[in-house]
Amino acid sequence: MTNQSLPRKFFNRDPVTVARDMLGTLLIRETEAGVTGGRIVETEAYLADGDAACHAHRGPTRRNAAMFGAPGHAYIYTIHAKFCLNAVTQAAGTGSAVLIRAIEPLCGLELMSQRRQNRPPRDLTRGPARLCQALDVDLDLNGWDLTRGDKLWMAREEDFPENRIGSSARIGISSGQDLKLRFYVRASGFLSGPARLNRS
DNA sequence: CTACCGATTGACT
DNA sequence: GTCAATCGGTAGA
Fold first, then answer.
1. What residues form DSSP beta bridges with A167?
2. Are A113 and A119 in contact (CB under 8 A)?
3. Mean pLDDT of A85-108
4. Residue A187 has pLDDT above 80, yes or no
């Protein structure tokens, strides 16, 4: 990959802005097995204040420690025996992040398919735990510096015009459903979630 | 120590 | 559309 990784200052902003700007950027994962990755098409913002759905809501614990680290680092957690990947936002100690929910697979399709037990191409990276499995992302990368441009990083590819970005309530949470903090690229074809949430 | 439960997924009707 | 498997984190006794 020739693109430079997104700089620290990209992540050192409020999570809503970062979540929107992250749409269209590349997520790249390099292992000994090869390079895999794709274009980010769906994200969710988790706020430091007044957001009961945010893992940082009840203060620091061992699980969410990475969320209170410097911006631009990975926060990876386990849920239902699976992994999900976030990018930490705002100043260290704030406790906000952006969850990467879906990417459009572009690179290393064969390897990703292998890691996903040869499931249909459309289902390779649709969903936060699916993309982690396709990219071989697990707890070993929790706290990883995404601005290093090594192992796991993000790079600028294209900006999407405002009218191609949709928003909805976040998926899978029980509190904070009134907040429209999920963002996605309209008509992407690689989105997770029920279809009704991908229309506005 | 036990009990509960989730920022999910995949199989099934 | 429905539903159960899954297992580490967290809270509470």
1. A183
2. yes
3. 98
4. yes
Residue A198 one-letter amino acid? N
Q: How far is the CA of A123 from the C1' of B6 (A)?
A: 22
Measured on CA atoms in the order A28, A17, A101, A11, is the torsion positive or negative? positive
A133-163 residue pLDDT tens: 999 999 999 999 999 999 999 999 888 888 8
Please tell me whether any atom of strand B lies within 7 Å of the Cβ of A130. Answer: yes
* d(C-alpha A151, C-alpha A146), whole Å: 9
List chain B nucleotides near protein: any atom < 7 Å from a Cβ: 6-10
Protein residue nearest nucleotide C1, by CA to C1': A194
Task: Kindly determine whether the C-beta of residue A115 is less than 7 Å away from any atom of nucleic acid strand B.
Answer: no
- What pLDDT score was predicted for residue A60? 96
Q: Coil, helix or strand for A137?
A: coil
